[in-house]
Amino acid sequence: MDRTESKRREMVRQINSEPGEREAMEAKHGQVWDTNELQRDYSVEGFAAPLIMVRRKEDGVRGSLMFQHHPRYYYSFKEA
């Protein structure tokens, strides 16, 4: 049983009800990655929408990113 599922589903609904284009996402969240950029900078360790768990390739730091579905952008890196 996933105790976070209902909260995550609500977050997904909110995020994807008004998806942003890249420029708007960067203005709101700072750095934004598309899928190719994500693969360049991070190793993906798991996901539970709207979160993705990653390890930054540059220094091995683990953390999480948020993502919206379409257009697919990742943002708001938080160290674990």
Descriptive notes:
With 80 residues, this protein is α+β, with helices and mostly antiparallel strands. The chain has one domain. Helix content is 35%, strand content 36%. It contains three helices and five strands; from the N terminus they run ααβαββββ. The protein has a five-stranded antiparallel beta sheet, sandwiched between helices. β2 (42-48) and β3 form a beta hairpin. The model has no long low-confidence stretch (mean pLDDT 96).
Q: What is the distance, rounded to the nearest whole angstrom, between the alpha carbons of the first and last residues? A: 23 Å
Radius of gyration: 13 Å
Query: Which structural category fits the helices and strands?
Result: alpha+beta
- Strand-and-helix sequence, N→C? HHEHEEEE
Biggest sheet record = 5 strands, antiparallel
The amount of helix comes to 25-40%
Portion in strands: 35-45%
